[in-house]
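Input (structure):
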Protein backbone atom coordinates (compact mmCIF):
# COMPACT_ATOMS: atom_id res chain seq x y z
CA UNK A 1 0.00 0.00 0.00
CA UNK A 2 1.45 3.39 -0.95
CA UNK A 3 0.64 6.39 1.19
CA UNK A 4 0.78 9.66 -0.69
CA UNK A 5 1.90 11.65 2.32
CA UNK A 6 5.24 13.25 1.52
CA UNK A 7 7.72 14.09 4.21
CA UNK A 8 10.81 16.24 4.12
CA UNK A 9 12.69 13.66 6.13
CA UNK A 10 12.23 10.07 7.23
CA UNK A 11 14.32 8.97 10.21
CA UNK A 12 14.69 5.22 10.72
CA UNK A 13 15.37 4.20 14.34
CA UNK A 14 14.18 6.06 17.46
CA UNK A 15 17.14 5.49 19.76
CA UNK A 16 18.88 8.60 21.07
CA UNK A 17 20.62 9.28 17.74
CA UNK A 18 17.51 8.98 15.55
CA UNK A 19 15.28 10.89 17.96
CA UNK A 20 17.71 13.83 18.14
CA UNK A 21 18.15 13.85 14.33
CA UNK A 22 14.35 14.11 14.12
CA UNK A 23 14.18 16.89 16.72
CA UNK A 24 16.87 18.98 15.02
CA UNK A 25 15.18 18.61 11.61
CA UNK A 26 11.85 19.63 13.21
CA UNK A 27 13.56 22.71 14.66
CA UNK A 28 14.44 23.66 11.06
CA UNK A 29 10.73 23.45 10.19
CA UNK A 30 10.92 20.11 8.35
CA UNK A 31 8.10 17.54 8.33
CA UNK A 32 9.47 14.33 9.76
CA UNK A 33 8.41 10.68 9.90
CA UNK A 34 10.29 8.81 12.66
CA UNK A 35 9.98 5.03 12.54
CA UNK A 36 10.96 2.42 15.11
CA UNK A 37 10.87 -1.32 14.47
CA UNK A 38 10.05 -2.23 18.06
CA UNK A 39 6.96 -1.38 20.10
CA UNK A 40 9.26 1.09 21.89
CA UNK A 41 13.07 1.43 21.87
CA UNK A 42 14.68 -1.40 23.84
CA UNK A 43 18.31 -1.33 22.74
CA UNK A 44 21.45 0.56 23.79
CA UNK A 45 19.53 3.78 24.52
CA UNK A 46 17.60 2.14 27.38
CA UNK A 47 20.20 -0.38 28.60
CA UNK A 48 23.00 2.04 29.46
CA UNK A 49 24.30 3.90 32.52
CA UNK A 50 22.93 7.28 31.55
CA UNK A 51 26.16 9.02 32.44
CA UNK A 52 26.75 12.14 30.33
CA UNK A 53 30.48 12.34 30.95
CA UNK A 54 31.66 15.19 28.73
CA UNK A 55 35.02 15.06 30.56
CA UNK A 56 35.65 11.53 29.24
CA UNK A 57 35.40 12.47 25.56
CA UNK A 58 38.34 12.76 23.15
CA UNK A 59 39.14 16.41 22.40
CA UNK A 60 37.79 16.28 18.82
CA UNK A 61 34.38 15.10 20.12
CA UNK A 62 34.26 17.24 23.24
CA UNK A 63 32.20 20.12 21.78
CA UNK A 64 29.38 17.78 20.71
CA UNK A 65 29.20 16.45 24.26
CA UNK A 66 29.32 19.89 25.86
CA UNK A 67 26.55 21.07 23.54
CA UNK A 68 24.52 17.94 24.38
CA UNK A 69 24.49 18.87 28.06
CA UNK A 70 23.14 22.31 27.13
CA UNK A 71 20.44 20.73 24.96
CA UNK A 72 19.49 18.22 27.67
CA UNK A 73 19.12 21.08 30.15
CA UNK A 74 17.11 23.23 27.74
CA UNK A 75 14.63 20.41 27.20
CA UNK A 76 14.58 19.53 30.91
CA UNK A 77 13.53 23.15 31.61
CA UNK A 78 10.51 22.60 29.37
CA UNK A 79 9.62 19.06 30.37
CA UNK A 80 11.00 16.48 32.83
CA UNK A 81 13.05 14.09 30.70
CA UNK A 82 15.01 12.81 33.77
CA UNK A 83 18.13 14.98 33.54
CA UNK A 84 19.87 15.42 36.92
CA UNK A 85 22.88 17.62 37.63
CA UNK A 86 24.95 15.80 40.26
CA UNK A 87 28.35 16.02 38.55
CA UNK A 88 30.95 13.42 37.62
CA UNK A 89 33.90 12.27 39.69
CA UNK A 90 36.92 10.17 38.70
CA UNK A 91 38.50 8.45 41.71
CA UNK A 92 42.16 7.44 41.50
CA UNK A 93 43.55 4.44 43.34
CA UNK A 94 47.31 4.90 42.80
CA UNK A 95 49.94 7.53 41.91
CA UNK A 96 49.74 6.98 38.15
CA UNK A 97 45.99 7.50 38.09
CA UNK A 98 46.32 10.55 40.38
CA UNK A 99 48.89 12.03 37.98
CA UNK A 100 46.41 11.55 35.11
CA UNK A 101 43.75 13.41 37.12
CA UNK A 102 46.14 16.38 37.47
CA UNK A 103 46.91 16.31 33.75
CA UNK A 104 43.23 16.16 32.75
CA UNK A 105 42.52 19.07 35.10
CA UNK A 106 45.14 21.15 33.22
CA UNK A 107 43.62 20.23 29.86
CA UNK A 108 40.12 21.11 31.06
CA UNK A 109 41.32 24.45 32.49
CA UNK A 110 42.68 25.25 29.02
CA UNK A 111 39.21 24.88 27.48
CA UNK A 112 37.52 26.68 30.36
CA UNK A 113 35.65 23.59 31.57
CA UNK A 114 35.34 23.55 35.35
CA UNK A 115 37.25 20.69 37.03
CA UNK A 116 38.02 20.50 40.76
CA UNK A 117 40.76 18.34 42.26
CA UNK A 118 39.58 16.68 45.48
CA UNK A 119 41.62 15.31 48.38
CA UNK A 120 40.84 11.92 49.90
CA UNK A 121 39.03 13.68 52.76
CA UNK A 122 36.99 15.74 50.29
CA UNK A 123 35.96 12.56 48.47
CA UNK A 124 35.00 10.74 51.67
CA UNK A 125 33.03 13.72 52.93
CA UNK A 126 31.06 13.95 49.68
CA UNK A 127 30.67 10.19 49.12
CA UNK A 128 30.84 8.53 52.57
CA UNK A 129 30.26 5.09 51.03
CA UNK A 130 33.77 5.11 49.51
CA UNK A 131 36.55 3.13 51.13
CA UNK A 132 39.49 5.21 52.35
CA UNK A 133 41.96 2.45 51.45
CA UNK A 134 40.88 2.61 47.76
CA UNK A 135 40.64 6.34 47.18
CA UNK A 136 43.81 8.38 46.56
CA UNK A 137 42.08 11.48 45.20
CA UNK A 138 39.38 12.70 42.85
CA UNK A 139 38.67 15.02 39.94
CA UNK A 140 35.16 16.45 40.05
CA UNK A 141 33.14 18.05 37.22
CA UNK A 142 30.23 19.79 38.95
CA UNK A 143 28.38 20.78 35.77
CA UNK A 144 27.94 17.25 34.39
CA UNK A 145 24.56 15.52 34.30
CA UNK A 146 23.07 12.07 34.20
CA UNK A 147 19.82 10.72 32.77
CA UNK A 148 17.65 7.73 33.60
CA UNK A 149 18.01 5.53 30.51
CA UNK A 150 14.82 3.58 31.12
CA UNK A 151 12.88 6.88 31.12
CA UNK A 152 14.74 9.38 28.98
CA UNK A 153 13.94 8.19 25.46
CA UNK A 154 10.25 7.59 26.16
CA UNK A 155 9.86 11.04 27.71
CA UNK A 156 11.88 12.65 24.94
CA UNK A 157 9.64 11.04 22.32
CA UNK A 158 6.52 12.19 24.20
CA UNK A 159 7.98 15.69 24.43
CA UNK A 160 8.80 15.78 20.70
CA UNK A 161 5.38 14.47 19.64
CA UNK A 162 3.63 17.07 21.85
CA UNK A 163 5.86 19.99 20.80
CA UNK A 164 6.16 19.44 17.04
CA UNK A 165 2.93 18.95 15.05
CA UNK A 166 5.13 18.19 12.00
CA UNK A 167 6.35 14.96 13.61
CA UNK A 168 4.75 11.59 12.89
CA UNK A 169 6.07 8.83 15.14
CA UNK A 170 5.47 5.23 14.04
CA UNK A 171 6.64 2.54 16.47
CA UNK A 172 6.28 -1.18 15.57
CA UNK A 173 7.34 -0.20 12.05
CA UNK A 174 10.41 -2.00 10.75
CA UNK A 175 11.83 -0.54 7.56
CA UNK A 176 12.97 -3.25 5.15
CA UNK A 177 13.95 -1.15 2.16
CA UNK A 178 15.13 2.39 1.55
CA UNK A 179 15.89 3.46 -2.02
CA UNK A 180 16.21 6.54 -4.18
CA UNK A 181 13.39 6.63 -6.77
CA UNK A 182 13.07 9.59 -9.17
CA UNK A 183 15.17 11.89 -7.04
CA UNK A 184 13.22 11.11 -3.86
CA UNK A 185 13.53 8.38 -1.34
CA UNK A 186 11.02 5.62 -0.72
CA UNK A 187 10.92 3.37 2.29
CA UNK A 188 9.02 0.11 2.48
CA UNK A 189 8.00 -1.25 5.87
CA UNK A 190 7.49 -4.85 6.97
CA UNK A 191 3.73 -4.23 6.62
CA UNK A 192 4.40 -3.32 2.93
CA UNK A 193 3.58 0.35 3.49
CA UNK A 194 5.55 2.77 1.32
CA UNK A 195 6.44 6.29 2.46
CA UNK A 196 8.22 8.97 0.47
CA UNK A 197 10.44 11.87 1.43
CA UNK A 198 13.18 14.11 0.13
CA UNK A 199 15.75 12.46 2.39
CA UNK A 200 16.25 9.71 4.92
CA UNK A 201 18.50 9.43 7.93
CA UNK A 202 19.16 5.87 9.07
CA UNK A 203 20.06 5.56 12.78
CA UNK A 204 19.91 1.79 13.03
CA UNK A 205 22.09 1.35 16.11
CA UNK A 206 23.35 -2.25 16.20
CA UNK A 207 20.85 -3.63 13.65
CA UNK A 208 22.82 -4.49 10.49
CA UNK A 209 20.70 -7.15 8.81
CA UNK A 210 17.58 -5.26 7.72
CA UNK A 211 18.94 -2.35 5.67
CA UNK A 212 22.14 -1.92 3.66
CA UNK A 213 23.42 -5.29 4.88
CA UNK A 214 26.15 -5.49 2.22
CA UNK A 215 27.44 -2.02 3.06
CA UNK A 216 27.63 -2.90 6.76
CA UNK A 217 29.39 -6.19 6.00
CA UNK A 218 32.30 -4.10 4.64
CA UNK A 219 32.06 -1.33 7.27
CA UNK A 220 34.63 -2.50 9.82
CA UNK A 221 32.06 -1.98 12.57
CA UNK A 222 32.56 -3.92 15.81
CA UNK A 223 29.74 -4.79 18.22
CA UNK A 224 30.50 -4.54 21.93
CA UNK A 225 28.58 -6.54 24.54
CA UNK A 226 28.47 -5.04 28.05
CA UNK A 227 27.26 -6.64 31.29
CA UNK A 228 25.47 -4.48 33.84
CA UNK A 229 23.98 -4.98 37.30
CA UNK A 230 21.52 -3.15 39.51
CA UNK A 231 21.30 -3.50 43.29
CA UNK A 232 18.10 -3.45 45.29
CA UNK A 233 17.13 0.12 46.29
CA UNK A 234 19.60 1.46 48.86
CA UNK A 235 18.31 4.95 49.72
CA UNK A 236 20.77 5.18 52.62
CA UNK A 237 23.83 4.95 50.32
CA UNK A 238 25.23 8.38 49.44
CA UNK A 239 26.70 7.98 45.98
CA UNK A 240 25.22 10.78 43.90
CA UNK A 241 26.44 11.60 40.40
CA UNK A 242 28.50 9.72 37.85
CA UNK A 243 31.17 7.77 39.78
CA UNK A 244 34.11 6.51 37.70
CA UNK A 245 37.15 4.78 39.14
CA UNK A 246 40.78 3.80 38.47
CA UNK A 247 40.15 1.45 35.58
CA UNK A 248 38.00 4.12 33.88
CA UNK A 249 40.91 6.58 34.18
CA UNK A 250 43.04 3.95 32.43
CA UNK A 251 40.41 3.48 29.70
CA UNK A 252 38.69 6.77 28.80
CA UNK A 253 39.86 8.62 25.72
CA UNK A 254 40.28 11.98 27.45
CA UNK A 255 42.98 10.43 29.68
CA UNK A 256 44.64 8.74 26.71
CA UNK A 257 45.46 12.24 25.44
CA UNK A 258 47.30 13.16 28.68
CA UNK A 259 51.13 13.30 28.58
CA UNK A 260 51.86 10.50 31.08
CA UNK A 261 49.29 8.06 29.63
CA UNK A 262 51.70 6.44 27.15
CA UNK A 263 54.05 5.43 29.96
CA UNK A 264 51.62 4.05 32.55
CA UNK A 265 52.23 0.54 33.84
CA UNK A 266 49.92 -2.44 33.60
CA UNK A 267 49.54 -3.54 37.24
CA UNK A 268 48.97 -7.27 37.82
CA UNK A 269 45.98 -6.51 40.08
CA UNK A 270 44.07 -5.32 37.02
CA UNK A 271 44.97 -8.23 34.71
CA UNK A 272 41.77 -10.32 34.97
CA UNK A 273 39.49 -7.27 34.79
CA UNK A 274 41.34 -5.95 31.74
CA UNK A 275 40.94 -9.32 30.02
CA UNK A 276 37.14 -8.78 30.09
CA UNK A 277 37.28 -5.04 29.38
CA UNK A 278 36.02 -4.28 32.89
CA UNK A 279 36.09 -0.84 34.46
CA UNK A 280 33.97 0.00 37.47
CA UNK A 281 31.36 2.74 37.38
CA UNK A 282 28.48 3.43 39.73
CA UNK A 283 25.31 5.42 39.30
CA UNK A 284 22.57 5.79 41.85
CA UNK A 285 19.21 5.72 40.06
CA UNK A 286 16.20 7.77 41.20
CA UNK A 287 14.69 4.72 42.95
CA UNK A 288 17.82 4.43 45.14
CA UNK A 289 19.22 1.36 43.38
CA UNK A 290 22.87 1.46 42.39
CA UNK A 291 23.79 0.57 38.80
CA UNK A 292 27.19 -1.14 38.65
CA UNK A 293 29.13 -2.07 35.51
CA UNK A 294 30.63 -2.69 33.06
CA UNK A 295 32.53 -5.18 30.90
CA UNK A 296 33.28 -5.32 27.16
CA UNK A 297 33.41 -8.28 24.77
CA UNK A 298 33.73 -7.69 21.05
CA UNK A 299 32.73 -9.26 17.73
CA UNK A 300 33.07 -7.91 14.20
CA UNK A 301 29.92 -6.94 12.36
CA UNK A 302 29.74 -10.26 10.49
CA UNK A 303 29.88 -12.38 13.65
CA UNK A 304 27.75 -10.46 16.13
CA UNK A 305 25.65 -13.51 17.05
CA UNK A 306 28.79 -15.11 18.49
CA UNK A 307 28.52 -12.69 21.44
CA UNK A 308 25.50 -14.67 22.66
CA UNK A 309 22.66 -13.39 24.80
CA UNK A 310 23.63 -14.90 28.17
CA UNK A 311 25.22 -13.34 31.22
CA UNK A 312 28.68 -14.68 32.05
CA UNK A 313 28.61 -15.02 35.85
CA UNK A 314 32.42 -14.99 36.08
CA UNK A 315 32.38 -11.46 34.64
CA UNK A 316 29.70 -10.35 37.12
CA UNK A 317 31.67 -11.84 40.01
CA UNK A 318 34.83 -10.02 38.90
CA UNK A 319 32.92 -6.73 38.68
CA UNK A 320 31.37 -7.21 42.12
CA UNK A 321 34.75 -8.09 43.64
CA UNK A 322 36.34 -4.98 42.09
CA UNK A 323 33.36 -2.81 43.14
CA UNK A 324 33.55 -4.08 46.74
CA UNK A 325 37.16 -2.85 46.94
CA UNK A 326 35.88 0.66 46.23
CA UNK A 327 32.69 1.03 48.31
CA UNK A 328 31.67 -0.10 51.79
CA UNK A 329 28.00 -0.98 51.20
CA UNK A 330 27.18 -4.57 50.26
CA UNK A 331 27.31 -4.69 46.45
CA UNK A 332 26.15 -8.31 46.31
CA UNK A 333 22.47 -7.35 46.81
CA UNK A 334 21.81 -7.53 43.07
CA UNK A 335 18.21 -7.22 41.89
CA UNK A 336 18.83 -7.54 38.15
CA UNK A 337 21.57 -8.00 35.59
CA UNK A 338 21.47 -7.53 31.82
CA UNK A 339 23.55 -7.28 28.69
CA UNK A 340 23.62 -4.23 26.44
CA UNK A 341 25.19 -3.95 22.99
CA UNK A 342 26.57 -1.01 21.05
CA UNK A 343 28.36 -0.73 17.72
CA UNK A 344 31.62 1.17 17.41
CA UNK A 345 34.48 1.64 14.96
CA UNK A 346 38.20 1.44 15.73
CA UNK A 347 39.20 4.57 13.84
CA UNK A 348 35.98 6.63 13.56
CA UNK A 349 33.96 8.30 16.32
CA UNK A 350 30.79 7.59 14.33
CA UNK A 351 30.07 5.79 11.06
CA UNK A 352 28.56 8.01 8.35
CA UNK A 353 27.56 7.04 4.81
CA UNK A 354 25.81 9.41 2.41
CA UNK A 355 24.12 7.63 -0.52
CA UNK A 356 23.14 9.72 -3.58
CA UNK A 357 23.11 12.72 -1.25
CA UNK A 358 19.64 11.58 -0.06
CA UNK A 359 20.18 8.67 2.31
CA UNK A 360 22.34 9.47 5.32
CA UNK A 361 23.44 6.59 7.54
CA UNK A 362 24.57 7.59 11.05
CA UNK A 363 25.48 4.84 13.48
CA UNK A 364 28.19 3.27 15.65
CA UNK A 365 28.66 6.20 18.00
CA UNK A 366 30.10 3.68 20.49
CA UNK A 367 29.93 4.16 24.24
CA UNK A 368 29.37 7.91 24.02
CA UNK A 369 25.85 8.23 22.60
CA UNK A 370 24.11 9.31 25.80
CA UNK A 371 26.79 11.95 26.30
CA UNK A 372 27.02 13.38 22.81
CA UNK A 373 24.15 12.33 20.50
CA UNK A 374 22.12 15.51 21.04
CA UNK A 375 24.99 17.80 20.00
CA UNK A 376 26.35 15.55 17.26
CA UNK A 377 22.89 15.16 15.68
CA UNK A 378 22.49 18.94 15.57
CA UNK A 379 25.72 19.27 13.59
CA UNK A 380 24.82 16.28 11.41
CA UNK A 381 21.41 17.73 10.45
CA UNK A 382 22.99 21.13 9.78
CA UNK A 383 25.49 19.46 7.42
CA UNK A 384 22.80 17.42 5.66
CA UNK A 385 20.77 20.58 4.95
CA UNK A 386 23.72 22.87 4.18
C1 LIG B 1 25.46 -1.14 28.79
C2 LIG B 1 25.69 0.18 28.14
C3 LIG B 1 26.12 1.27 28.89
C4 LIG B 1 26.31 2.51 28.27
N1 LIG B 1 26.56 3.60 29.05
C5 LIG B 1 26.65 4.82 28.46
C6 LIG B 1 26.85 5.99 29.25
O1 LIG B 1 26.83 5.95 30.49
N2 LIG B 1 27.03 7.17 28.62
C7 LIG B 1 27.02 7.28 27.24
O2 LIG B 1 27.24 8.36 26.72
N3 LIG B 1 26.75 6.20 26.48
C8 LIG B 1 26.58 4.98 27.04
N4 LIG B 1 26.34 3.88 26.26
C9 LIG B 1 26.24 4.05 24.80
C10 LIG B 1 24.89 4.56 24.36
O3 LIG B 1 23.87 3.85 25.01
C11 LIG B 1 24.79 4.42 22.83
O4 LIG B 1 25.86 5.13 22.24
C12 LIG B 1 23.48 4.99 22.28
O5 LIG B 1 22.37 4.53 23.00
C13 LIG B 1 23.34 4.60 20.80
O6 LIG B 1 22.11 5.12 20.34
P1 LIG B 1 21.56 4.76 18.90
O7 LIG B 1 20.34 5.57 18.69
O8 LIG B 1 22.67 4.87 17.89
O9 LIG B 1 21.25 3.18 18.95
P2 LIG B 1 20.03 2.34 19.58
O10 LIG B 1 19.71 2.74 20.96
O11 LIG B 1 20.40 0.90 19.34
O12 LIG B 1 18.78 2.71 18.68
C14 LIG B 1 18.64 2.28 17.35
C15 LIG B 1 17.15 2.05 17.12
O13 LIG B 1 16.92 1.82 15.73
C16 LIG B 1 15.89 0.84 15.60
N5 LIG B 1 16.03 0.24 14.27
C17 LIG B 1 17.12 -0.38 13.76
N6 LIG B 1 16.88 -0.78 12.50
C18 LIG B 1 15.62 -0.41 12.21
C19 LIG B 1 14.80 -0.56 11.03
N7 LIG B 1 15.25 -1.14 9.92
N8 LIG B 1 13.54 -0.07 11.07
C20 LIG B 1 13.07 0.56 12.17
N9 LIG B 1 13.80 0.73 13.31
C21 LIG B 1 15.07 0.24 13.31
C22 LIG B 1 16.18 -0.12 16.74
O14 LIG B 1 15.05 -0.90 17.08
C23 LIG B 1 16.62 0.83 17.84
O15 LIG B 1 15.53 1.21 18.69
C24 LIG B 1 26.14 2.63 26.86
C25 LIG B 1 25.71 1.54 26.11
C26 LIG B 1 25.47 0.33 26.73
C27 LIG B 1 24.98 -0.83 25.91
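Output (sequence):
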Amino acid sequence: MTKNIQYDLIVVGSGILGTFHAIHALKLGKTVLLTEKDQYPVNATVRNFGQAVVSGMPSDWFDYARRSTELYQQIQNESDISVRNNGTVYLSSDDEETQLLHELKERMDAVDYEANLLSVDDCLAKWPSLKREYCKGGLFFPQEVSVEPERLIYRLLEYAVAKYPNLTYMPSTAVLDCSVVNDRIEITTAARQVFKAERAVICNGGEFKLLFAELFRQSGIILSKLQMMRTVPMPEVQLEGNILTGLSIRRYESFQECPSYAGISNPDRYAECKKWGIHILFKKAVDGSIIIGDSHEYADVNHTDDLGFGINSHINELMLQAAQEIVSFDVSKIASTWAGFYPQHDTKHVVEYDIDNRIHIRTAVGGKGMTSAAGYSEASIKKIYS
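Notes: The first strand starts at residue 2 and ends at 12. Residues 88-142+221-345 form a domain with the D-Amino Acid Oxidase; Chain A, domain 2 fold (CATH 3.30.9.10).
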